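Changelog-linked ticket: KG4 example.
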Amino acid sequence: MEQRKDIIILGIESSCDDTSAAVIRNGVLLSNVTASQAVHEAYGGVVPELASRAHQQNVVPVVDQALKRAGVDKEALSAVAFTRGPGLMGSLLVGVSFAKGFARALDIPLIDVNHLQGHVLAHFIKEDENDHDQPSFPFLCLLVSGGNSQIILVKAYNDMEVLGQTIDDAAGEAIDKCSKVMGLGYPGGPVIDRLARQGNPLAYTFARPHIAGYDYSFSGLKTSFLYSLRDWLKEDPDFIAHHKEDLAASLEHTIVDILMRKLRQAAKDTGIRQVAVAGGVSANNGLRNAFREHAAKYGWHIFIPKFSYTTDNAAMIAITGYFKYLDKDFCPIDLSAYSRVTLK
Ligand code: KG4
């Protein structure tokens, strides 16, 4: 009888400021190595040229470590999967070029991955053979990151429909900008999260959007936060220092409420009770708690990613590559990166 050959995928992620490589065997994660770039902290945001240069330095050692930790020889790889986009072009090019060269040298297929699809499919990463807590199709996924806020109807691994998305800023972007005006540094998400745990979520109210359907908007909230803060600072120059916990808690509460309202509506309208969350903002404790409350109140079966799969990581690229490999969905060597794209 013919023996089933292992399918071993190397995933590479370099869309923003994390260089990451992961190895997945038959859908089970063997390694996931990420080099983050502290160089941007001094600038209050990611500097594209510096990110690109850091990827250049990191990509070879990160891939080397991922293979070593997985105990996999490069000759055993079945394919190389890479993030094609969306992301910063200079950053993407490093991962794309490396993946092409590596796949060509090993004479194995190359698989392009949409970063957003990767975030959604992170819910299918198995850490061992007995890891079975995964959504079944169809399910809803709230994808919230620095660049996206979307409600996605996931019909299959390769069939996703965006039901709604932000018409201006993303949720993470709004959090980062508000935290910046409070002088809390970059990225603001983790700091706001920490402060919010000690504050009163109902201390202040900010403008909420009135947008039809499942679309989001966060730019009005950001402006409302900015103008309110400006007025309060006129009265008390130390307002931020005195009230940062309440400000963070109220901001987080407003954003989570905006996100959950539309998601609740989508769950109600579609009748789907399996609901997942993905992307960098899914690390937020207020949002995670809101998911748990909805599970208890509305009978949702919820899927919340481990913290290591909320931010950019190559494990999600490798698992997406695995499913595309099963479909023999390979890409040509002359494929170029794309900086902007939505889900296909
Ligand atoms: O998915 P991601 O790592 O990068 C992309 O945008 O693709 O998301 C980054 C975003 C940033 O806006 C960051 O502030 C936010 O996720 N974030 C958080 C938390 N951790 C990261 N937002 C709220 N609470 C957190 N704990």
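Closing comment: Example verified and attached. The pocket of KG4 is lined by residues 16, 145-147, 172, 175-176, 187-190, 192-193, 279-281, 283-284, 311-312 (CB under 6 Å). The chain has two domains: 8-132+309-326, 139-307.
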